[in-house]
Write a structure and sequence with these properties.
The protein has 277 residues and is an alpha/beta fold. It is built from 11 helices and 6 strands. It has a single domain, classed as 3-Layer(aba) Sandwich (Rossmann fold). Helix content is 43%, strand content 12%. A hairpin with an 8-residue loop joins strand 3 and strand 4. The protein is globular, with a radius of gyration of 19 Å.
């Protein structure tokens, strides 16, 4: 389509330049890219910006995924006991899990599990607070689980999960104990992805490997306890553009990273101050 593509952070926006000035080797993040996109759209009369995750309307649009899955289960006379999905901003998880949450409200008992990286543990180690949806603080404040808007996640290969916050809807559901969250390390997710590829002939994206890891772990627990469960996960994308990351896995070049608590606390210290209502 003739578009120009720039790796964020760029030197063509004020937001990008400010990040590079403080950290010339910044690996970037979804939050930084959002700041740059908002700045570009706000500075031009001919440009609008539609956020592709996090916000309520995005998650609700994606629920066609879960609705289709419900029909597929009905056709084969099955129903899931647990639903898994990788979670960064929340649109993947919300899209597949929200229709099943509606079934829970109608009396069913399905466990809904978000899976995030240990290097970016928004739900499992973040705080529930008002925060910006981008790094530079250009969005309205959102009540969410957050690691702090200036939190820069380590450069793991699951780029779609490298986000400091989470959907307000997903966050509220987790706050109220309506869904679960687990965090898994990077190498274990690639181990799961390779197992899945060898079993099913599908090379999954690094983000999807997080859900696959959690499903395998649960299946092994069920095997140990002799439980029968139907486990459903959303394979959110293929890994055809992530083959270099698989090369690194097979070369033993990947590392696990668990973000230090001190760094999380530092980022949370810069949360915007909001007066009590």
């Amino acid at each position: 389509w003739g578009a120009d593509v720039f790796a964020s952070p760029t030197d063509i926006t004020n937001a990008g330049r400010s990040i590079l000035a403080s950290d010339p080797d910044s690996p970037g993040s979804l939050g930084i890219a959002i700041s740059e996109a908002i700045e570009e759209a706000a500075s031009r009369d001919d440009t609008n910006y539609a956020l592709g995750s996090v916000l309520n309307h995005v998650l609700l649009l994606q629920t066609v995924i879960g609705q289709e899955a419900q029909k597929q289960f009905a056709k084969i006379g099955e129903y899931p006991d647990m639903v898994f999905a990788p979670c960064g901003g929340g649109s993947n998880f919300g899209g597949v899990a929200f229709p099943f949450f509606a079934d829970n409200a109608a009396g069913k008992n399905i466990r809904l599990v978000t899976v995030e990286p240990t290097s970016c543990p928004t739900l499992t180690r973040g705080h529930y607070a008002y925060d910006f949806g981008d790094t530079l603080g250009m969005t309205p404040l959102l009540l969410q689980y957050t690691l702090g808007h200036d939190f820069i996640p380590p450069s793991i290969h699951a780029g779609g999960l490298r986000y400091h916050g989470d959907s307000t809807l997903v966050s509220q559901m987790y706050k109220e104990g309506l869904i679960e969250a687990v965090a898994v390390p990077q190498i274990a997710t690639f181990e799961a992805g390779v197992t899945f590829a060898r079993s099913e002939g599908i090379v999954a994206a690094p983000e999807s490997n997080h859900a696959i890891r959690a499903v395998i772990d649960e299946a092994l627990r069920c095997k140990e306890s002799a439980e029968e469960k139907t486990l459903f996960f959303n394979l959110s994308g293929h890994g055809h553009f992530d083959m270099a990351s698989y090369d690194q896995y097979f070369a033993n070049e990947l590392v696990d990273y668990e973000y230090p608590e001190a760094e999380i606390e530092r980022a949370l210290h810069n949360l915007p101050k909001v007066a009590a209502g």
